[in-house]
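Note to self: keep these together.
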Amino acid sequence: MVTITAVAEQKIQELMKEEKDVVGLRIYVRGGGCHGYQYGMAFESKMADDDTVIEKGDVKVIMDSQSAPLLQGAEVDYVDSVQGSGFSIKNPQAKTTCGCGSSFSA
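Structure:
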């Protein structure tokens, strides 16, 4: 299961209010990046039958059937620091990660 921190939940809610016809935030893994897999996020207006949906408060996090196993046990957080702000994924299944944190190997 993927967990969403309270800070990430609040930021997702805030961003969803700016979008139209959004049902949730899709988190996915695709091939690419410097370590083989790359994370992606996008607001979603529809869900597929085989999607996995995690609900935290009013927020729905949606994962496709191929990404869900690679994200098992991951934590989604929102970081706001001097170096910048954005969503961060801590994935215990990642054997190695790149310096920017957006790609990993499993």
